[in-house]
């Protein structure tokens, strides 16, 4: 449940002499909400499945149990990707009536339905029997996944309750105090509908698992399962155990593939795609948690901006930093990235507190790209290193924070379409002495003494003779903005473009957020 103590702030501020009926009514509503903070255990009302025709009903609750269960089962070998939903429904008005609602089928489709009018005891009994038949678990007890049975998808009902509480206090129109350019960014990176659209691109099932409702434990299990799948790929062991792992992964992290068979996850590229999804889910959870509406008289954009605590100051086009970044973006669009153009919209200076290893030398301003739904979390918490339970796939030089000196290499990670806005981050990276590698080395994070970073050398890189420097907080920072040129003997290098990797967050300082518009290149 959310901590309601943090929500107990006055929404309504009025003068003492404004004791009119409207104020009294509003004040009573507020006090009612605040009074709930020490009493709420379960949400008052759980909404019925949207496909159910029963009007005037809610999900039945009894002694802390919510009689609603969303089940999921994926079996790669049999091309199964199915769900089963069951709910006991109670009429809101007396005399009380009770229904038992079932819906089941392939993920992504409405499926089949069944609605029965029963007594309460009969509805509960049949609900519990069906739950046990599908999961081999007793309803109300700690859930354990059984082989060949459905898994229970955890649902955070407190999210729904939070929405109900928001309606208890009138949402007054409060003007935004932000610069319009800043407001536009804040609204874009905290737009939950846009996040849902991006998650659907990654085949995540947002219908069964709405934004913010997947648990941290589910995501952690997802990482662990991908690591086990990765080991099977390494040994080319694609037998029954492999299929079971893939099925368990899809069961734990709900996907929607329509009638198509779920990918078998036999290739490392498949693992990379799933890692992108899990990262997106982590960042989405951060965004949902930190954009909750509070019982306070603050514009939502202002509130979200304050929570980020990252500065986000628009740069004038006339200042040196803007001109340097504009040149850096233009010159380092790789010749192999011809499918799109990038139009610079705005540059924002960032001011993020945190320890920074300024004692390590060789500071460079380097690019980092990411999907739109990741940016709220990045600006809030900084760039993160993959967790221990995550597989090594996708990390050619070990688990660290990856950067590029080629803008379009980083832009490819934005996953933006024609006409969409994306963001690139420019960070001041303390590289120190780098170990230079021509090929992948998954244990690169185990560096020799005196080495502070890894440089994966690419076939093409910015012309080193054309670099410039910016002085930031008294430190001379290299900006490798020369035009992209090809090295001699390019076949000696596995990478197309350079990559820079550090293995400590203290070697990274977020400096500029670059807003760009993607345009299809029709040439």
TrEMBL record:
Its EC number is 2.4.2.-. GO terms for cellular component: nucleolus. It is an enzyme of class 2 (transferase). Pfam families: PARP, PARP_reg, WGR. Residues 175-292 form the PARP alpha-helical domain. Signal peptide: none annotated. GO terms for biological process: double-strand break repair; protein poly-ADP-ribosylation. It catalyses: NAD(+) + (ADP-D-ribosyl)n-acceptor = nicotinamide + (ADP-D-ribosyl)n+1-acceptor + H(+). PROSITE patterns: PARP_ALPHA_HD (PS51060), PARP_CATALYTIC (PS51059), WGR (PS51977). It comes from the Eukaryota. Belongs to the ARTD/PARP family. This is Poly [ADP-ribose] polymerase. It comes from Bursaphelenchus okinawaensis.
């Amino acid at each position: 449940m959310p901590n309601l103590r943090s929500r107990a702030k006055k929404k309504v501020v009025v003068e003492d002499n404004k004791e009119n009926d409207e104020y009294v009514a509003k004040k009573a509503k507020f006090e009612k909400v605040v009074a709930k903070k020490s009493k709420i255990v379960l949400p008052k009302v759980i909404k019925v499945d949207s496909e159910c025709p029963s009007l005037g009903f809610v999900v039945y609750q009894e002694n802390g149990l919510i009689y609603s269960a969303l089940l999921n089962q994926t079996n790669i070998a049999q091309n199964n990707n199915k769900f089963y939903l069951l709910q006991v429904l109670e009429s809101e008005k007396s005399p009380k009536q009770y229904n038992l609602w079932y819906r089941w089928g392939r993920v992504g489709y409405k499926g089949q339905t069944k609605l029965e009018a029963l007594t309460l005891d009969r509805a509960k009994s049949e609900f519990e029997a069906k739950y046990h038949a599908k999961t081999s678990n007793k309803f109300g007890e700690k859930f354990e996944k059984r082989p060949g049975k459905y898994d229970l998808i955890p649902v955070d009902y407190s999210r729904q309750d939070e929405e109900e509480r928001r309606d208890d206090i009138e949402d007054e129109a409060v003007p935004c105090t932000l610069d319009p350019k800043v407001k536009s960014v804040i609204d874009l990176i905290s737009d939950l509908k846009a996040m849902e659209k991006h998650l659907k691109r990654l085949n995540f099932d947002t219908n069964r698992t709405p934004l913010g409702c997947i648990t941290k434990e589910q995501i952690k299990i997802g990482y662990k399962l991908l690591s086990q799948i990765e080991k099977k790929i390494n040994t080319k062991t694609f037998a029954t155990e492999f299929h079971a792992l893939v099925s368990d992964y899809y069961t734990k992290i709900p996907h929607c593939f329509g009638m198509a068979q779920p990918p078998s996850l036999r290739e490392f590229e498949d693992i990379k795609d799933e890692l992108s999804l899990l990262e997106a889910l982590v960042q989405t959870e951060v965004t949902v948690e930190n954009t909750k509406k509070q019982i306070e008289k603050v514009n939502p954009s202002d509130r979200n901006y304050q929570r980020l605590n990252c500065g986000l100051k628009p740069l004038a086009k006339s200042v040196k930093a803007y001109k340097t970044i504009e040149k850096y973006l233009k010159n380092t669009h790789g010749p192999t990235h011809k499918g799109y153009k990038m139009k610079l919209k705005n540059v924002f200076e960032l001011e993020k507190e945190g320890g920074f290893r300024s004692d390590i030398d060789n500071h460079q301003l380097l690019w980092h790209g990411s999907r739109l739904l990741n940016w709220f979390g990045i600006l809030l918490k900084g760039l993160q290193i993959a967790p221990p339970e995550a597989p090594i796939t996708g990390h050619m030089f070990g688990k660290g924070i990856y950067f590029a000196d080629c803008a379009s290499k980083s832009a490819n990670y934005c996953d933006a379409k024609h006409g969409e806005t994306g963001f690139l981050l420019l960070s001041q990276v303390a590289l120190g002495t780098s170990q230079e590698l021509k090929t992948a080395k998954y244990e690169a994070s185990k560096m020799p003494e005196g080495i502070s970073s890894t440089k994966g050398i690419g076939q093409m890189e910015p012309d080193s003779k054309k670099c410039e420097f910016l002085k930031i907080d008294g430190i001379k920072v290299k900006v490798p903005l020369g035009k992209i040129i090809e090295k001699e003997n390019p076949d000696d290098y596995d990478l197309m473009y350079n990559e820079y990797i550090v293995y400590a967050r203290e070697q990274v300082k977020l400096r500029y957020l670059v807003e760009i518009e993607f345009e299809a290149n029709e040439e």
